[in-house]
Design a protein that fits this description.
With 285 residues, the chain is α/β, with parallel strands linked by helices. It has 2 domains: 1-48, no CATH class; 52-283. The chain has 4 helices and 19 strands. A hairpin with a 2-residue loop joins strand 5 and strand 6 (68-70). Helix 1 (16-30) runs parallel beside helix 2. The longest helix is centred in the first third of the chain and has 15 residues, at 16-30. The chain is elongated.
């Protein structure tokens, strides 16, 4: 068989075996049992979806800059279905400065335990309005979510309904988990952590606090289950633990459960509001 392409009249010999191999490759990807003519193969290939990290690659391949892969500007939301854990740098910068993304959810993600896993992932996505982690229970990577949604000026809703623990108890550095994560998110007014019980922060400097520089716009925080704020049980330095909200000038209110008042008042950093100097503390949940 000879194939003529375009107007240059170039001819290429294509054997039946070659076409059969292409058809087999298509079927191995789409799971179909169809037979294909040469004329049908191009559209069959275009219809294939290759997935990585639960995202259709066609959605993310497009712009490569400074070694980072960006999502092409488009309107809509994206869901990372099937992603249960994220390794270091896996999604770092992946949607940085995206101009069309309006929402993102990680419906199956349960654990973030590596540094820089979600660093800058949605930073400066100025149309991003919602961000949800419905199954996330643990965040322990040193800089796991730093700059996660920094400068997302349309972000109004952030959900961590099952997050139970931030940090680790062992004698190793584990801090800055949400460093700058929601800084300059001017429409974000409330962040709720309904099941969060423990925040451990192991670090030797105040600016290594869990949420350091995180909130510089007016925001209220709610922790109805939180009982423990401090260093890991095997760690010695309390500096970072006493400053989990270091330089979070925008926090106006922090709400805790009345039943946990004694435990919270006894935590390291309580007297200085863990660095949230403009906040008023309430035990009214």
């Amino acid at each position: 068989m000879q194939i003529q392409r375009g107007t240059d009249m170039a001819k290429v010999l294509v054997t039946e075996s070659y076409l059969s191999d292409i058809a087999d490759a298509i079927r191995s990807k789409n799971g179909a049992s169809s037979t294909y003519t040469p004329a049908q193969m191009a559209s069959a290939v275009e219809a294939l979806e290759t997935k990585k990290c639960g995202v259709v690659l066609d959605d993310v391949i497009g712009n490569l800059s400074s070694g980072h892969l960006y999502l092409p500007s488009r309107s809509g939301t994206i869901s990372f279905d099937g992603v249960k854990s994220v390794v270091a740098y896996a999604l770092a910068y992946k949607f940085y400065r995206n101009a069309g993304l309006t929402g993102a959810t990680f419906p199956d993600l349960t654990t973030i335990s590596t540094s820089t896993a979600l660093a800058y992932t949605f930073s400066t996505c100025t149309y991003l309005a919602s961000l949800a982690f419905p199954e996330l229970t643990t965040v322990s990577g040193t800089t796991a979510c730093e700059y996660l949604a920094y400068n997302c000026t349309a972000l109004a809703s952030v959900s961590f309904p099952k997050l139970a623990t931030i940090g680790i108890t062992s004698n190793s550095a584990n801090n800055r988990n949400f460093y700058y994560a929601f800084n300059n998110c001017s429409k974000l007014t409330e962040v709720r952590f309904p099941l969060l019980t423990h925040i451990y922060c192991n670090g030797t400097a105040a600016n290594q606090g869990t949420f350091a520089y995180c909130f510089n716009k007016s925001v209220k925080l709610y922790f109805p289950k939180l009982t423990t704020i401090g260093k890991g049980t095997s760690y010695t330095n309390e500096t970072a633990a006493k400053n989990i909200f270091y330089s979070c000038s925008g926090i106006t209110e922090i709400h805790f459960a009345s039943a946990n008042k004694t435990a919270i008042e006894g935590s390291a950093g309580y007297s200085t509001k863990w660095g949230a100097t403009n906040a008023t503390l309430y035990f009214d949940l």
